[in-house]
Amino acid sequence: MTQQSPLNEQSPLDDSWLAISQDWQEQPYEKANLDTLLRKTRRRTWWAKVSLVANILATAGMLLALLVGLYRGDREMPHLVALAVLFVASVVYVYIEVKIRRTAWQLNDAGPDHALKAAISGGESSLQYARLMKWSSYFLVIPLNWYGYAMMEYRENITWKTFVFINGMLLVMYVGTHIYQKKRERELSSLRQFSENN
Predict the structure, then answer these.
(1) Is 13 contained in some domain?
(2) What does 97-134 look like in DSSP terms, one character per residue?
(3) What helix, strand, coil percent values describe the chain, rounded to 5?
(4) Which of 38, 129, 142, 170 is the most exposed place for a label (fewest CB within 10 A)?
C-alpha cells in the first residue's frame, strides 16, 4: 500500500525532489533515480548560489548607500545608523551562509555514485540555512523597531501602522522559514532512511 505524500502544500520544484526521495523507501535501487536526484540537487545548488549572489549584492548596496549618505550628509541619523547596523549584520550573514553552503557544494561535482551523499549533505546545509534565517528574523526585531521609532521624530506619516508592517514582515519571514525547515527535515529523514536501508 502506497503512503500518500504531503506534496499538495509544496512548490513544484520541491514536489518532484521530495517525491523521488520518498519513493526510494518503496523501490529498489536504480541508477536512473540517482541521476535524477543528482540533477535535482544541482538545480537546488544553483538556486542557492543565486540567493548568495543576491545577498552579496544587497550587502554591497547597503555599503554604497551608507557611504553616499555619509558623503552627502542629507540623510537623517536613523537612516545612517540602520544602514550601518544592517550592513554589518549582512556581512556576518553572508559569511555564515558561505560556510554553511561550501561543504555541500563541493559534493555536487562528485557524480552519480555520490548523489545520495550529496543530497543528504545538501539537506543538512538547508537546515543550517533555515536556522540562520530564523536567527536573522530574531536579530532584526530590535533594530527595525528602533528605526521606526526613531524616524517618528523626523516624519509625521510614521505611525503605529509602520510597526505593524515591520513586525508583520518579520513574522512572515519567520513562518516562511519554519515551513521551509520542516519540508527539509522530512526530505532529509527520508533520504537518511533510504541510505540506512541500502
Answers:
(1) no
(2) HHHHHHHHHHHTTS-GGGHHHHHHHHHHHHHHHHHHHH
(3) 80, 0, 20
(4) 142
Total structural domains within the chain: 1
More confident call, 18 vs 159: 159
pLDDT digits (tens, 9 = 90+) for 31-64: 546 677 777 878 888 888 899 999 999 999 999 9
CB 100 within 8 Å of CB 52: no
CB 144 within 8 A of CB 166: yes
> What count of other Cβ atoms lies within 10 Å of the Cβ of residue 110?
13
Number of Cβ within a 10 Å radius of residue 115: 23
The reported pTM is: 0.71
The three-state secondary structure class of 13 is helix
Q: How far apart are CA 117 and CA 103, in angstroms?
A: 12
| Structural domain for 161, as ranges | 31-197
55-69, 100-114, 137-151, 161-175, range with the lowest pLDDT: 100-114
Give the single-character DSSP code of 75: S
In a domain, 52, yes or no: yes
CA distance 183 to 123: 10
The amino acid that residue 179 corresponds to is I
185: pLDDT strictly greater than 70: yes
Residue type, 112: P
In this prediction, residue 24 has a pLDDT band, given cuts at 50, 70 and 90, of very low
User: For cell 557611504, what's the residue?
Assistant: 67
Q: What backbone torsions phi and psi does residue 144 show, to the nearest 5 degrees?
A: -70, -35
For residue 118, being part of any structural domain is answered with yes
